[in-house]
């Protein structure tokens, strides 16, 4: 395998027109394979293609053009390219320069609307996170990366793959006793937190210490100026029973925050 000069920097490659990219088991640059990318399990790419096919076209879901043979013997998903990039990466790179709160609230609405649509289509994301959201022009958000998702009517194995910072506290329960929807809505609260607070849940706490923080009941701190704080807290208290209810409350919060000049 050729040395990859972009190792750690390249996740997905753009097509010739710059309007799409290819997600594959290998990173290809100018017709050469540079790096093999291990997926969580065999068949993840094919599984993701099936899920994208069910989702179809939606304003809050990254467009997928299906599986393509990007190179001989190497299949890839052809996906829409985000004009800005990964939401989490953008947040990290611009930690000291967050957009205005009303823009962050609209991002949160976009994200929640995407989750609402997934659930309407019988898809449970299982890896709900701002790291799997893409930013487009004017801070519009689309969701992506459904390789570990499950959907009704399929025989897909249930694989729980939430990142530790988004995991639901057990609160005296066994993990198997926490309903998938409960986990999804708790994680949705964490995504809204990351977007509106403009920082990753638990901040600089090392990964190996996250479980202890969650187990002790220590939740990320919500600031007083965050008008979505009560919505986030309600997600974390497991008081929501649908993503639609979260969307409704976020939409109200966003509308109350809008400036007099219409947003682009």
UniProtKB/TrEMBL annotation:
Keyword Lipoprotein applies: no
Top-level taxon: Eukaryota
Pfam families for the chain: PK_Tyr_Ser-Thr
Signal peptide per UniProt: none
Gene3D superfamilies for the chain: Transferase(Phosphotransferase) domain 1
Keyword flag Transferase: yes
Record protein name field: Kinase-like domain-containing protein
